[in-house]
Amino acid sequence: MKKGPTLFTLKKQTMAEIKPFSQVKLICGIIANQEGVFEKSQEHLIHLFGSVDASSERFPFDFTDYYKKQMGPRLKRTFLSFTQLISPEKISEIKIQTNGLEEKIKSEFRAKRRVVNLDPGYLTSSALIMATAKDYSHRIPLQHGIYAHLELMFKKNHVETLSWTYPDFKTEEYQRFFWKVRKIYLASK
């Protein structure tokens, strides 16, 4: 009778195939309707995650009314890209930190309702992944109630969207910004 691979040889083979994750580019979206809230949010984010190497313009956030009831009208969104690379497995912890930061900023502005939405994510050479606390069929559970949401894919010369990509992420302006951040990321590797 011939013996198959032992558990030891299987473990040895598997361990040889496992490699640590590559460092990724941390980004964070900020949705608000007050200049002071944008400034305060950026100040806190830099304190937590270090210097910024790219920031987008303030885009009108008018593809959905999802936050209007909580945060009011005339919302805008901007994105920050952080210089320091992170391990991708840290994104759950970062999402929990930014959720707490939203509450802190609300308190600092003595607001009765939400004043900011912070959306962290990360960029690799091939994809933009956002962190979310909302479950859905295409989202991957990470830890502590946080999910990974694949938003965009980067091909050789273009950005590809998916059927679930949010409408604002499908715009040329967003994609141009993320393509720029991808170039910064690739140059830093």
Describe the fold and architecture.
This protein has one domain: ACT domain (Alpha-Beta Plaits, 2-Layer Sandwich), CATH 3.30.70. It has helices at residues 7-17, 35-49, 68-71, 91-108, 172-188, and strands at residues 24-32, 52-55, 59-60, 76-86, 117-123, 127-132, 140-141, 147-154, 159-161. With 189 residues, it is α+β, with helices and mostly antiparallel strands. It is globular, with a radius of gyration of 19 Å. Helix 2 packs across helix 4 (91-108). The N and C termini lie far apart (51 Å). The relative contact order is 0.18.
Keywords:
189 residues, 9-stranded antiparallel sheet, 5 helices, 34% helix, 28% strand
- The CATH superfamily is ACT domain
Question: How many discrete structural domains?
Answer: 1
Provide the CATH topology: Alpha-Beta Plaits
Secondary-structure arrangement, i.e. CATH architecture:
2-Layer Sandwich
Topology:
Elements (H helix, E strand, L loop, with lengths): L6 H11 L6 E9 L2 H15 L2 E4 L3 E2 L7 H4 L4 E11 L4 H18 L8 E7 L3 E6 L7 E2 L5 E8 L4 E3 L10 H17 L1
Antiparallel strand pairs: 1-4, 1-5, 2-4, 3-4, 5-6, 6-8, 7-8, 8-9
Helix pairs in contact: 2-4
